[in-house]
Amino acid sequence: MFCVIGGQCGGTFAWKSTDGGAHFTTLPLPNSVSSGKLPPTCTDACNGIGLSPAGGDTDIAVAPRKKNNGFYNIYVASLQSTPPLVNVYVSTSSNGGATWSINPAGASIPVDDREWIAADGVSKVCISYHSTLTSNDIVVDCSNNAGFAFTQHASAFDPTHIAFLAGFNNVIGNLAIDPSNHVIYQVFSSIADATELSSCLVSCHVHTVWIGVSIDGGNTFKDYTVYDNPNDQVDYGHQFIKVSVDRGNNVYVVYSDDHNLYYSFSKTFGQTWSGPTPSINHRRTQQSFPGAQREPQAVSTSSGTAQTITALSTLTTIPPKRRGRSTSARTSKPPHPIVHGPRWQPRG
What we know:
globular; 4-stranded antiparallel sheet; Neuraminidase; mainly beta; 5-stranded antiparallel sheet; single chain
């Protein structure tokens, strides 16, 4: 088990657990190359460390298959911090976090924000991010050599939808890859169609949850609606919409309207969706980041029956004023709570 956070004084801090999260040991910083001393405004404790050139919006991924040396590749993505947002740093460890190599130019397009990272196979890794230089497109770049070079580039917006999904009318969510079939999923929120642009042009209410699906390894994407709220004043841009995949190839998306948490699931590789189903387990709360968490031994059986989804929010669940519509059937569905199964225990 690995976790990372952005360092208070720049850079990324990393930890490793080998006992299911009961204890953690500190790892070398994934992007610790110093570019000089910190400004005087920082604390004395930080002043001796130096300023890392990266560490913003940190995300982590672990390869689902081992290398020949018995380790799983670990990947850490973070935004460049000096100067800010110029590119996406990708750090790779092939020895359990003992040492790191750094690619300071993971993004194919400069001036980036809100990057995510996902891994597949032994050495494939993909990043997604907002290209803020022009249209706020969501770009997906992939590497087949453990992050040393990202040579495959695509937009998460397909030609049918890019005209209205781009143009600063979308809020990015995370990137996920199904390790069993290599389908790539990029989730985000935006408007429902181009007719809404006449009233808002930019900064529209992002009341529709979307997912980009790639079945060719990230070369191309096709966009599907997860949920379109008929109330176009609702926003699902509250950081962050999250997507995850279970071992039965079912896909889950969790999203928030700033009052309630909802989840939808797909048994058709992202093409059709259930829900929205509200989460009523609001005792499990956190400041931000609503999330669908895949717990390997508890989320699904081989047939993909959901047992555990963890949803995180700061807000008390408020009964919705109206039911939304499902994208797989235009009928309302009664709400069902998220079911929490037995706590996952690592295998001996």
